[in-house]
C-alpha cells in the first residue's frame, strides 16, 4: 500500500514537473534565422539566352574561273585591299597559247570564207551564162540545172565559212577573257580574312569555282548567328535588344539588335534550333570573326515595375511556424465570432496579411522579426528568374518577404537581410 502511494506521488510530481517545463519552455519554441528580401520597384526584363558566333555582315569569297597554277600572290592575311586591286596572278603560258590557237583558227576560217566567196562568184557567172545559152537552145536543160546546183552549193559553203569565222572570233574572245581571269582582283574594299592558296599551287575550276581568298567588306559591322531553342523562338522578334558577351572581353558588354529570325530550322540529335541574326557594332574593332558570343535577348522589359524575389514564391515556413500561425488565426476567429459576415478569408492577420491560401501563390511577410502571415501574389507579369513582376496585388513596396530560413547557429546562404525570429504562442 505504501509502495502504491509512493508511486502515485511520484507520478503526480513528474506530471507537475513536466507541466512547469512545458509552460516555461514552450514559449521559447525553435529559434529560426530568416533571410528576407523586400518588395521593390524598378526595372525588370524577360530574356532568352543563346550562343553563336560573330562574323562580318558582308564576307566575299574570291575565286578563279579558270584552272591554272598560282604564279604570284600580292596580299596576305589582314591585308587591306581596294576594289579592283590585283591580289594574285595565275601562270598565263597555257592561256596565251590558247589565244594564239584561237587567232590561227580565225585566220583559217577567214581564208576559207574568202575562197568560198570566189567559188560563189564563179558559180554565179556559170549559171548566168548557161541560162542565156539555154534560152537560145544552145545547151541542154541538164547543164543549166547543174550550174544552178553548183551555185547553191557554193553559197552554202560560204554561209558555213562565215559561221566558222564567227565561231573562231568567239573562241578568241573566250581565250582573251580567260587570260584576263588569270588576274585575280579584289571585288570590294575590305580586309583579307583568309588566304587559302600558296604560290605554285594548282587550282582547278572545272566543276566549281575554288575559293582563293575571303575578304570582309567592313569589320566595323558584325553580326552574330545565334542558335535559339524552339521552346524560346516564339518570343523572339526583329528589333529586340540583345546583350552580347565574349570570352575575349569578359568585362565588356556589347549592345546588339535582332535583325532577322530565320525560318529554316537546324536539327541535331533531335534538338531543334533556329538561327537568329543579331547586328553588333564593332567600331572599336574589338571583335574578330568566328568569336563565340553568349547572347541575352531581351524579349520584354519594364522600367518601373513592382517586383518580388522569385525565391519568395518558392518559400514555405517550417511546420511549427505554420502551426503557430494557424493557432493564432483560430484564436482570433473565436474572439471575433465564427465565420465572417463580410466573407473575409480565414486566418487573416493584421495589415491584410494572412497565413495561407492554397488557391493561389503566396509570399510570407516578416514584420518586427516575426512571420506574420502570407499575402497572395496576385497577377504575375514578366520574370527574369530572379525577380517576378506582380500586378493587382495587396503587396506594398518595402515589405520584407522571407526567402529562406535555418535554425539558430546555422548560416543562411546567399544574400539578404537575416533576422532572428523566436516562434512562440
From TrEMBL:
Transmembrane segments: none annotated. Residues 224-300 form the CusB-like beta-barrel domain. It is found in: Cell envelope. Keywords: Coiled coil. One of its GO terms (biological process) is xenobiotic detoxification by transmembrane export across the plasma membrane. InterPro entries: Beta-barrel_RND_2 (IPR058792), MacA_alpha-hairpin_sf (IPR030190), MdtA-like_BSH (IPR058625), MdtA-like_HH (IPR058624), RND_pump_MFP (IPR006143), UPF0194_transport (IPR050465). The keyword Transit peptide does not apply. Residues 106-182 form the Multidrug resistance protein MdtA-like alpha-helical hairpin domain. It comes from the Bacteria. One of its GO terms (molecular function) is transmembrane transporter activity. Belongs to the membrane fusion protein (MFP) (TC 8.A.1) family. This is RND family efflux transporter, MFP subunit. It comes from Fretibacterium fastidiosum. The lineage of its organism: Bacteria, Thermotogati, Synergistota, Synergistia, Synergistales.
